[in-house]
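name: query_chain
kind: protein
chains: 1
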Amino acid sequence: MTTAERPVPAGRRKLAWQRRRESAARFWKRYRTHRAGLVGLTALALVVLAALTAPLTVGSDVASVTDAPGSPMESPSAEFPLGTDRFGRDLLGLLIWGSRVSLLVGLLAAVLSVVIGALVGITAGHFRGGYATVLMRITDWFLVMPTLVLAIALATVLSRSLGTVVLAIGVTTWPTTARLVRAQTLAVEARPYIERAKALGGGHWHVMSRHVLPNVMPLVLAQTTLMISSSILAEATLAFLGLGDPTVVSWGGMLQEAREAGAVSSGDWWYLVPPGIAIAVIALAFTLCGRAVESVLNPRLGVAR
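structure:
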């Protein structure tokens, strides 16, 4: 049995978990010094809370067309603070319910994008040679191609569903992450302890999982946070273009319905403004959180607080 394959004693595992808890405490202590990051985190927490409690606060029947409580296109009132849509549904309830889909699609698409990018970046930085050359040329091709055009093409060819939207966004937005992770992997593998690990019998999987991955995880975490905002905007764009899932309520879908109902020409601002503001707020919140995380994990970036 090689050194890399020996089981880790329980005492070392306990020490490792203790160090992780201390690291998390240091991270939160530094994060709290970033006012913009705290503002973004507060806004994000409120939106997530509203999304999680939506079944209790607005109910799953809020999207029902047959049981709409109001008249079509009512302006804001005490009964309907944001007015009603063309079917007479409460727009405030739809806005809260739509946050569930927008957040879910944004999170899943960002995770898919970062996982693909991290996998490509780590393997290309570790193996190098012809394998890395082929991967990087594919990455360059995706970089020069318009992301939105590729996503629209995929969403058009495949069936209209949330899975299609997640797939379309995830497989077209990974190249930036791949480039960043590859550069970090090359820097990590140039350190002396990597040579020592290989000399002691550590294989490719051991080096990548035990040494490279922990060192690139801060970059992956920051990139994931930043990618969520881009994914939410991409989902809203696809839904606005009519390529989203028509059976669910999302903020982009609300904008698309407002356009179809002629809200722009008729001046029904309450149909357009709330979902647009919601998309802008959640995208800004994730961006602020991502910049704060980036600054905490890499103080040399000098991100403004």
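note: Residues 150 and 266 are 33 Å apart (CA to CA).
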